[in-house]
Amino acid sequence: MNKKLTLGAVAYCPEVVTIWDGFKAWFQSHGLPFDTILYTNYESQVEALFAGHIDVAWNSPLAWIQSERIARNLGLEALAIAMRDTDQDLSSLIVVRSDAELDRIEDLREKVVGVGAHDSPQANLIPLNHLAAQGITPHVDFKVLPFDTLLGKHGDHIGGEREAFVALIEGRCDAACLIEGNYQAFEREGLVKAGSTRVLSTTAHYDHCCFTVIAGRCDASINQFVELLLSMSYNDEEIRPLFDLENLTVWLPGRTKGFAQLNEAVDRFGYLDDFVVRMNKQFA
Q1: Contact (CB, 8 A) for 4 and 34
Q2: CA distances for 34 relative to 5, 38, 82, 222, angstroms
Q3: Do β-strands 78-84 and 175-179 pair in parallel, antiparallel, or remain unpaired?
């Protein structure tokens, strides 16, 4: 029997406990000794991965980039071994009020753009990088109005995006940045009157969360974990409620090509420099 595999996840909402208690029972019933440790923030989880306290990290896209950069600097290799089908090919939007005289990105000069938390890839880093790449620089050409809800959870909680969108509706900002899926959800739940907002610009596609490991550690257990993970079926009555809570229909092999925009944003804004340097010193 392989050694017990310990997975780290960030408890960004109460349902995370239900999700991973359920998956834990399923893995154990299928012959994989398995446990989870929940963290309050992704930085602690990334640190735990390099300290060897966990074998697998269920990482946000920003936590993946943190892990990949730290590993590379330490002469190690971080691997993205699996992700949800819903983690692939996502887009963020820059949304404005329908009656606003804003037709091009250039029109946002000297305006106020509402964004999610500073560490939110989908509602801050990626869309602000998108605007910068189009020639208007955040904090220089336009004012940024951030909603730093639950920093450390990398925007998984949605709160900052919702607050930015509400600020747009209430006229406290001229545009808001949010992931396409949340924009659709906000419309469905009636947060905004149909037709009162419109999309000014859309980012290129990017990927989201992934399971992260350090190459060469617990290979047999990791291989068993991935094999079992990819075998899960939405048709399984035990699995389906967990999939619904985790917002997926199938697990897919991991890939890294969808993180290019976030890597560019991190480089442009220097967001991860201090944390990566500190981790490199700690584990050198």
Answers
A1: yes
A2: 5, 14, 17, 11
A3: unpaired
pLDDT tens-digit map of 131-149 = 999 999 999 999 999 999 8
CATH number at residue 238: 3.40.190.10
pTM score over 0.90: yes
- The last residue of a domain, from among 202, 222, 244: 202
Give the burial class of 170: count Cβ atoms within 10 A of its Cβ; 0-12 exposed, 13-18 middle, 19 or more buried. Answer: exposed
| Domain co-membership, 137 together with 268 | no
Chain centre distance of CA 39: 15
For residue 227, the tally of other CB atoms under 10 A from its CB is 11
Show the CA angle centred on residue 143, arms to residues 141 and 148, nearest 5°: 140
pLDDT digits 0-9 by tens, 249-258: 999 999 999 9
Closest CA to 152 of 39, 65, 50: 39
